[in-house]
Amino acid sequence: MEARTAAGPESRRAPSYSRFIFRAPSVPRSLAVVVALTVVSAALVWWPGQGARWFLLLFGGVFLGPSLVAAGLTPAFAKALGGRIGLQRSILLVATTSAVGLFLLLVWRGLALAVPTVLAGAAVAPFLLLLQGPTFWFRHMSLFGISRPSHLRSIGPSLLQPVLAVAAVLWLFGASWTLFEAATAFLVTAFLCCALLLRASDRPLRREFGVSGVSLIRPLLDHINLRDPGATESLEQFFSKFAKPANLALSVVTFGRAGRRYVSLVLPTVHPGPFAALGASDLPRKLAERLEPEAGTVLVPHTPCNHDLDLPSRKEVDRIADAAAELLGGLTPQSSGPASPLVSPYDGSLARAQRLGDTVLVVVTQAPAPTDDIDFAVADAIVRSVSADEKLRVVVVDAHNSYVEDEGDITYGTPTAERLAKDARAAVRAAVLQTRPGPIEVGVAVRGGYSIGRQGIGPTGLRALVVRAAGTTTAYALIDGNNLVLGHRASILRALEGVVDAAEVLTTDNHVVHEVDGSINPLGERFPADQLAADVRAVVADAVRDLAPSDVAAGSVTLPEVPVLGPNWTARLLTSLGDTVSMFGHAFVMTFLLLIAASAVVLVALR
Questions:
Q1: Nearest by Cα to 446 from 604, 345, 300, 234
Q2: What is the pTM of this model?
């Protein structure tokens, strides 16, 4: 097995950039915002009043009309040029540009009230033309990123709203060569400022990875919003360029009834990231869809690994699934055999263990302290040494169930890693000492219908495996999510008292839950603790009622040279993303101010 070092806390900060990804409001809501903004904008230009007809001409001709026409035509125009933007985002874009224009109008009116001599005699028409520069600047910046990263193919849709507004201004106030030249100067200046902004924002990712960061925005949005296969393939091709080969371990523990697989634990040393449903992210669902129903109900707990062992594409996930199916097909079940309860060797141990036939399942948590990713090398060393000493197959599960940001990783060579090795050895030994011959009963239950956005729970929902062996009933409650808010594990375990004799709460660390607004999305942040505990109790109770005699079989295999993202890749990506966000923020402000300053010079020249 290839040993790897941990990526450190960056593995949890990876999804923090998802706060910049949001879902567009509904069409009615965005339209209401557009109407409200244009009413106020028209009123600011019209005030102190020149009759209702003039207000309506300003409102409908200069503000609302161009906005609505641009919102409706932009999707088709962009599509004709190889781009893509939905109606929802098109209307949101118009609402945003209307807000930018309103801000400038408020500044204009404020200056006129505060320093009347400054704007004395200033014509309204040139200022309305000036507003079209920022409108074009913002639209082109947005469409270049979310529709098509090409100036040539995005400039047409970008110009729709400002050109329509320019035409309306020239019609209302009388066309002249001077106004036409001014409008042209405003739009050209806006394009140059936008091009400068985009070039500056592109530099960090282009320097580090040789790819345009802006060009990744549209595929990312299409993947998140539409699960578009082409967008997914584009992003995974980007990941695959930087993949490195690694030898991965795969273990399965399966329980059967009446000659059929009834429930299977599938445990690859694969981190379920990097994000959304890309690569190995959403691993529990992907493996369950590939292996069920032949493998029975499939549970995919988190194994000891971090972002170093993210898979770059679905191709590698399919390889894992094929290997698991082959491994399951070659196992010989035992109708009864030696088994133990889930035991802890002493208070405060980081490891608990349960023997099932010739396999010992070791579950690791630092709760009530923070607990997160365990370096693959730490667990690999434990598996090798303990398996050799006890002559048993050892499978380690990272419970991943006590979240505090940037805390809880167990990295190779640290005192915590050494303590874990000692505790795991003691836990296995305790399980061996409490082993008893006899039948094994197993029950399983599944509860779905959860929402990533509302509850922070992924597609495979709650899955409970209950094992009755050696006179004790043990529950493993697996929640498809990324970690559990600190303290919630204890409340869930209290809820299970009286239902089973022992229990552990596991999360899958599925990074699909990060694609909602707000980043990390740990369990318990969106879902009340009491409701979560009640749901876990209910699904475990269902699994208890499902208990029946079962056979057990387990196996392990090493998969050589599987492409993974590898050490430091995520850190490099995060650093580049951080530089990109910082660069964009600075360039956004700089180019906006430059645009306003240059436009103001043109405006003064017209007086």
A1: 300
A2: 0.84
